[in-house]
Amino acid sequence: MRRDGADVNAAARTPDTEQLLEDASRGDSQARHALLVRHRDRLLRMISVRMDRRLSARIDPADVLQEAMADAWRRLPEYLEKRPVAFYPWLRRIAWERLAKLHRFHLEAKKRSVRREMILPLPSQSSATLADRLVSPGTSPSQKAESRENRERVRAALAELPERDREVLVLLYLERLSVAEAAAVLEVTDGAVKMRHVRALKRLRPLLAGDESGRDSNAGDDS
Question: What is the pTM of this model?
Fold first, then answer.
């Protein structure tokens, strides 16, 4: 993802996450605050991507973010003592848990197992955005029209993908996580994330062409 000059300069002036973790572990309250502020935009993006429109009509994503950040602040000392996973996946999990509870409470979703709760249903608007990210826009009127058609086909094909493969695309293209962060979120290896990514993109092609073979070719592969 391309970043403008202002973003690059700001990043250069800001201590990286590892340095902030070291300072925070020594009791630096400003470093603890900076750790959370550093990832506010990423968390808000995740919440917005995952939030059902029916829920966002009742609750502002920024309010969900604020509550998640307050929860993270309370739990930060324990994290700093043990540091069981990388910081952002840990922080994201807190925001995700709060969002999942809101979905269950307000939308009366069926209770799922802990493992299944790792993946929230993808709202329709986010599915459309993901399709946009996967389709290269054309420049001429005819190319633009073709791109619109392709987006709809990709969107329909995404719904046919196995959930674990579609989730990798969401993490990488919508939440903009690194491979390592996606692996931590899914509790798999970096190699498994890369494999699922390639497999998902391969599966889209036969689905778009109306070939059912792509749907079952790796049905037994749980990598």
Answer: 0.75
